[in-house]
Amino acid sequence: MLLGSYRYNKWVGSKGRRVRWVCSQKTAGCKAKIYTFDDKSLFTVSRFGKPVLVLNGYRYNKASGKDGQQPIFTTSNRGNPMIQIGGCNFSLTKNGGGLKRRWVCSKWGSTGCRATITTLDDVVLKSNLNHMH
């Protein structure tokens, strides 16, 4: 498999729908890996050992929450989806029918806070946790 200018070899232990590919430079110490599911989604590990998602030619690094805190996926009192990070709540704004979702601070309407989170299948892709309140 060729991704960008990097070559990956199929790992011999791969069976079923999930296939692991390892960097051809593994013997030189490269830790990069790619996981394919039904030859569609690409989940990789960077050469530094960090998880990466490759979707439509773009690379997304897994982000953690504020001060390393992980997001808590929950529902509001009215039953709407919500994320909690560091004592702040985020409400779902755009769903678009896909797996990629955009969340805004729940105080956006009252204080004009511009803190946002973008998720893909419940994995935080990027976040702006600079609150204005």
UniProtKB/TrEMBL annotation:
GO molecular function: zinc ion binding
Domain of life, source organism: Eukaryota
Keywords for this protein: Metal-binding, Zinc, Zinc-finger
Residue ranges of every copy of the FLYWCH-type domain listed in the record: 73-133
InterPro entries: Znf_FLYWCH
Alphabetized Pfam families for the sequence: FLYWCH
Metal-binding among keywords: yes
Name of the protein: FLYWCH-type domain-containing protein
